[in-house]
UniProtKB/TrEMBL annotation:
Coiled-coil regions listed in the entry: none
Sequence similarity: Belongs to the ABC-4 integral membrane protein family.
Upper taxonomic lineage: Bacteria, Bacillati, Actinomycetota, Actinomycetes, Bifidobacteriales
Protein name stated in the entry: ABC transporter permease
Cell location: Cell membrane
C-alpha cells in the first residue's frame, strides 16, 4: 500500500501542491518567529551587556531585600582595595581582573572645552569600548578619548589635554582633593563604542589608574570607589577562592547569569519584552496555520474522493485506505515542513543582512537553535496528519458506488446539533479564559494581588488559549452563522441583475460549501487584522511608554552658558525647541525616608516645559506654591510623597556648605508628582518650580540647563551629529555637559521599527495563505457545480453572465468573510495588546483602517482571480458535453 500511496502522490502532484504550500508557509512562519525571537534576544542582550565586554564573570551587589542605611552605605562605598585584585589575579584560572571605576570629567585644550564620562583602564578584553587608534592608557597620566571628542577639541594621539573633575553644580566637584586647575594628560589613543555601551553619554574616555585617582581626588588608585569587578576566567578557574576574597554584600555571577539579569531588567515580572511580544503572536500564528492546513487538506481529500472510491472497488479495505491517506499526509507534511524551515532560515538570514536590521544599533544575527527547526517540522507533520483524519474518515466511510459520483455529503441533524453544542461550549470556555487573563493582568497593573505577579506566562497562555478556543468555535460553527450572513449580503446583491441573483441562489443552496469557502478566507484575514492591530497598538503603546521613560531628547548643563550659546544651539541641524532655565541642587527625603539628590529647575510655565518634554503632563498644574517631582528616581525606585507633603527649599539642602549658603529662606512647597523619567543621568531626580523662585531670592542659581528636542533625521550624521553639534556650540563653557537620552530612545524606536518591518513580511505571508485557501475552495466549488453550470447554459445563460455570476459569488464570499475576519482580528489584536503591553504603559487600541482596507481589497481581488480559471472552464464547456460529464 505504501508503493500505491507514493505512486498516487506522484500522479496527483499538482493537486498536492496547494496543500504543500500551505504547510510550507505555515512552518516557515513558525520558524521565522523562533529565529526572530532568537535574533532580538541576542541583540538586546548584546546591547544591555556591552558594558561587560569580554568578561566571563562579574561581581554584583547583593543587598538584603530591605537594607538598612548602614548596609547600603557599606555596599556602595567600596574602593578598589576592598576587592583584593592582586590576590584575585594570583588565583589559578584568572587571566584578568578589572575594577569598574568611573568619573565625570571636563576636558580643555586651549579655548576649546568638552565634558564627558570616563572609565578606568584594564585588560583589552575587559574594556567595553575599543581603541581604534593608538593604545589604551597604562600609566603616566594617559587618556584615550572618544573620536568625536578628540575631533571637537582638535586633538590627536600624542597631544596633551587638561583633565578636570566635572562639577555637578557650582562649587561641587567630583573629588574634593582634586587639583583645582586639573591634570595634564597625554592622549594615548582614540576610542569607539560600537555596541552602544555608553550611548547615553556619546562615548567614553579611558583613564590610566594614576589619572583616575587624580581625577577622583585621592592619592592612590586603591582608594577610588569601585562599583564592581569584571573577570576574565578560563574553564578551570577557582571561583570558590574568588568568592572568599569578595567584600560583604557581593556575589560572583557568571556571564550567562549577568546577561539574563540585564535583559530581565527591561521587563516587568521577570518576563522578557521580546519573549512576551513574540509569544502572543507565535501562539496566534500556530493556531491560524493549523486551521489553514486543516482546511486545505480537507479540500485535497475531497478532490480525490473519486480516486479513493476506485481503490475501494479494486479490493482496498477501509483500514488500508485510511492508513494510505495518513501516510500520504505524513510524507507531505515532512517534505513541506523541511522546505518551510529552510525558507524561514533563508528569509531571516536575508533580513539580518539588510540595512533595516542593522539600524537597530546592535545588528541582528542569525541564531539557529534546535527548537527553530524541530518545532516547525514536528508541528507541520502532526497538523497535516491530524488535518487528514476527518476527511479520510469521511471519504472511506461511503460505499464505492456512492463515492463514484460527486455527491455532496449531507450533514445529519444529529451531527449538526453535536457541532453546535461543541462550538457553544468552546466559545463559552474561550471567552471565560480571555476574561480571566485580562482580569488578572488588570489586577497586576493596578498593584493588587494577582496570579500575573508570579505566573505571568501562564496567565498570558491562558488568554491566548481562550483566543484559540473562541476562534476555533467560530470556525467550527461557521456552517451555522456564515450562511446567514451570506444570505443577507446576497439579498442586497441580487437586486443588481440576473447574474447576482444566480450567485445569491447558489450561496443559499449549499451552506457547507459556503462555510468551508468563507472559513478559509476568514482564517487568513483574521490573522492579518490581528497582527496589524497588534503592530499598531505596539507602536503607539511603546512610543508612549518610551516618551515617559525617556522624557527629553537632550539636555546640557553648566555654570557659564550664555544666551549667545543658547542661540548657537538652536542653529544646530536636528535641534528643535530649546528651553534655557536656571538650576539649583537640593537633597530631599520622601515619606519612606529615602534620600534623593534633586536638581531643581526654574521654568516659565508648564506649557513651555511641555514643548520640550515627551511626558504626559495633562491634568498637572504648577503654581508658585508647588514643586513638580517625578514618581520614580533614576534607578527606578518609587518616590513616595503624599498630597500634603511640602518641601522646604532652605532646609532641604544637599548637606554641603556651598549649597547651604546659596539656599535662601525659602517657602514650603506642595509636592506635585507626574510620571516622567530619564531627564538626567547624574541626579536621582529633576524637579520643576516656577522661575520666580530664582528671581525673588527663594533659590540662588547654581547653574543652567538646556532642554532640547531633537530630530536625528534632520542631521546628516544622525544622533551623533546632533550631539556633536550641541557640544561644539557649548565648547567655550568649561563645565558644559551634554547628554542624550535620544541615543537610547532612538535605539528603542529603531528596534520597534525593525519588529514592524518583519511583521509586514508576516502579513504578506498571511495574505498568501488566504489566497491559497480561497483558490482551493472556490475551485472545488466550481468543479462540483459542472452540471449546474451546464444546465444554466442550456436554458440560455450566456458565458459572460455565467462568469459574472461566479465572480459575484466569489466577491460576496470574500467581502462577508473578510469583514468578519477584520472584526475578529481587531478584537484579538486588542486583547493581545492588553495582555502584553499593559505591563509597560497605557494600552492604545487603534483600528488599522489602512491595513484592513487593503486586506479587504486584496481578499476581494484574490477571490475574483481565484474564480477566473474555474469560471472559464465552466463557461467554455459545451452544455451537452458538460451534462454528459456530470
Amino acid at each position: 500500500m505504501f508503493r500505491i500511496t507514493v505512486n498516487l502522490m506522484r500522479k496527483t502532484a499538482r493537486m498536492l501542491i496547494p496543500a504543500g504550500v500551505a504547510v510550507l508557509i505555515g512552518t516557515a512562519f513558525i520558524a521565522s518567529t523562533f529565529l526572530f525571537g532568537n535574533a532580538m534576544n541576542d541583540s538586546l542582550t548584546r546591547q544591555q551587556t556591552a558594558i561587560y565586554a569580554g568578561a566571563d564573570a562579574m561581581v554584583l551587589t547583593d543587598l538584603p531585600e530591605h537594607p538598612t542605611d548602614k548596609q547600603a552605605d557599606e555596599a556602595y562605598s567600596r574602593t578598589v582595595v576592598d576587592y583584593h585584585l592582586d590576590r584575585i589575579r594570583a588565583i589559578e584560572g584568572v587571566e584578568g581582573a578589572r575594577a569598574v571605576t568611573a568619573a565625570a570629567i571636563a576636558l580643555s585644550n586651549g579655548a576649546r572645552h568638552a565634558t564627558g564620562y570616563a572609565i578606568g583602564t584594564g585588560e583589552t578584553s575587559l574594556l567595553p569600548v575599543t581603541v581604534t587608534h593608538g593604545d589604551r592608557p597604562v600609566g603616566g597620566h594617559g587618556i584615550a578619548l572618544p573620536e568625536r571628542i578628540a575631533e571637537q577639541l582638535g586633538l590627536r594621539v600624542g597631544d596633551t589635554v587638561r583633565v578636570s573633575p566635572r562639577s555637578n553644580t557650582a562649587g561641587n566637584t567630583a573629588g574634593s582633593q582634586a587639583p583645582a586647575d586639573g591634570v595634564e594628560a597625554r592622549v594615548t589613543g582614540l576610542t569607539a563604542d560600537p555596541n552602544g555601551a555608553y550611548a547615553y553619554d556619546g562615548g567614553v574616555s579611558i583613564l590610566s589608574d594614576d589619572l583616575m585617582a587624580a581625577v577622583n581626588g585621592v592619592a592612590d588608585f586603591g582608594q577610588v570607589n569601585a562599583a564592581s569587578v569584571y573577570l576574565d576566567l578560563d574553564a578551570h578557574a577557582d571561583t570558590a577562592a574568588i568568592t572568599l576574597l569578595l567584600p560583604r554584600y557581593s556575589r560572583l555571577v557568571d556571564r550567562d547569569e549577568a546577561d539574563r539579569l540585564a535583559v530581565e531588567s527591561l521587563s516587568t515580572n521577570g518576563t522578557s519584552v521580546v519573549t512576551t511580544f513574540l509569544m502572543s503572536f507565535g501562539v496566534l500564528a500556530l493556531l491560524v496555520a493549523a486551521l489553514v492546513i486543516a482546511n486545505t487538506f480537507q479540500v485535497l481529500v475531497a478532490q480525490r474522493r473519486r480516486t479513493l472510491a476506485l481503490l475501494r472497488t479494486i479490493g482496498a479495505d477501509r483500514r488500508q485506505l485510511y492508513a494510505s491517506v495518513l501516510c500520504e499526509a505524513g510524507i507531505l507534511g515532512l517534505v513541506a515542513s523541511l522546505l518551510g524551515v529552510t525558507l524561514g532560515i533563508g528569509l531571516m538570514a536575508l533580513l539580518c543582512a539588510t540595512g533595516v536590521m542593522k539600524t537597530t544599533g546592535a545588528p541582528l544575527r542569525l541564531i539557529v537553535t534546535w527548537p527553530a527547526i524541530a518545532v516547525p517540522v514536528a508541528f507541520g507533520m502532526i497538523m497535516t496528519v491530524v488535518a487528514s483524519l476527518g476527511p479520510a474518515r469521511a471519504a472511506t466511510a461511503v460505499t464505492p458506488l456512492e463515492a463514484l459520483r460527486p455527491v455532496e455529503p449531507a450533514e445529519t441533524t444529529r451531527r449538526g446539533r453535536a457541532r453546535a453544542i461543541l462550538s457553544a461550549l468552546m466559545l463559552a470556555s474561550g471567552i471565560a479564559l480571555c476574561a480571566f487573563g485580562v482580569w488578572q493582568t488588570h489586577l497586576s497593573v493596578i498593584g493588587r494581588a494577582s496570579l500575573a505577579d508570579d505566573h505571568y506566562p501562564a496567565v498570558l497562555l491562558a488568554a491566548m488559549g481562550g483566543c484559540a478556543l473562541t476562534f476555533t468555535a467560530l470556525v467550527v460553527s461557521a456552517v451555522h452563522w456564515m450562511p446567514a450572513l451570506m444570505r443577507g449580503a446576497g439579498a442586497l446583491a441580487a437586486t443588481t441583475g440576473p447574474s447576482a441573483a444566480i450567485a445569491h441562489a447558489n450561496i443559499q443552496k449549499n451552506p457547507r460549501r459556503v462555510a468551508a469557502t468563507g472559513a478559509a478566507l476568514l482564517i487568513g484575514v483574521t490573522l492579518v487584522s490581528a497582527i496589524a492591530t497588534g503592530a499598531a497598538s505596539a507602536k503607539t503603546t511603546m512610543a508612549d511608554a518610551l516618551a515617559t521613560r525617556y522624557s527629553v531628547d537632550m539636555i546640557a548643563t553648566g555654570t557659564g552658558m550664555t544666551e549667545e550659546q543658547s542661540r548657537q544651539v538652536r542653529r544646530v541641524k536636528g535641534v528643535g525647541r530649546v528651553l534655557d532655565a536656571p538650576t539649583a541642587l537640593r537633597h530631599v527625603t520622601d515619606d519612606q525616608g529615602h534620600g534623593i539628590d534633586v536638581l531643581i529647575v526654574g521654568i516659565p510655565s508648564l506649557h513651555d516645559l511641555a514643548k520640550v518634554m515627551h511626558a504626559d503632563l495633562t491634568g498637572v498644574t504648577l503654581t508658585d506654591r508647588d514643586i513638580l517631582m517625578p514618581r520614580q528616581s533614576l534607578g527606578g525606585t518609587v518616590i513616595d510623597f503624599d498630597r500634603t507633603h511640602t518641601a522646604d527649599l532652605a532646609a532641604a539642602t544637599d548637606g554641603t556648605d556651598t549649597a547651604a549658603a546659596t539656599g535662601a529662606s525659602g517657602p514650603g512647597l506642595t509636592v506635585v508628582q507626574a510620571d516622567y523619567r530619564r531627564v538626567s543621568s547624574v541626579y536621582d531626580a529633576v524637579a520643576f518650580v516656577t522661575a520666580g523662585h530664582f528671581t525673588d531670592g527663594d533659590l540662588t542659581e547654581q547653574g543652567r540647563i538646556l532642554f532640547m528636542t531633537a530630530d536625528p533625521d534632520a542631521n546628516p550624521n544622525g544622533v551623533g551629529g546632533v550631539i556633536d553639534g550641541v557640544r561644539e556650540a557649548l565648547n567655550a563653557t568649561p563645565d558644559a555637559n551634554v547628554t542624550g537620552p535620544i541615543a537610547e530612545r532612538d535605539m528603542w524606536d529603531t528596534s520597534i521599527d525593525a519588529m514592524m518591518a518583519l511583521l509586514v513580511g508576516l502579513i504578506a505571508v498571511a495574505v498568501l495563505i488566504a489566497l491559497i485557501g480561497v483558490a482551493n475552495t472556490l475551485s472545488l466549488s466550481v468543479i462540483e457545480r459542472v452540471r449546474e453550470s451546464a444546465t444554466l447554459r442550456a436554458i440560455g445563460m450566456t458565458r459572460g453572465q455565467l462568469r459574472r455570476s461566479l465572480a459575484v459569488e466569489a466577491l460576496l464570499l470574500s467581502l462577508v468573510s473578510g469583514v468578519a475576519g477584520v472584526l475578529l482580528g481587531t478584537l484579538f489584536g486588542w486583547l493581545g495588546s492588553t495582555m502584553v503591553f499593559s505591563l509597560y504603559g497605557t494600552v492604545a487600541m487603534p483600528f488599522a483602517w489602512k491595513t484592513n482596507g487593503i486586506v479587504l481589497a486584496v481578499s476581494a481581488l484574490a477571490a475574483l482571480l481565484a474564480s477566473l480559471l474555474p469560471a472559464r472552464r465552466a463557461a467554455n464547456t459545451p452544455p451537452v458535453e458538460a451534462l454528459a460529464e456530470a
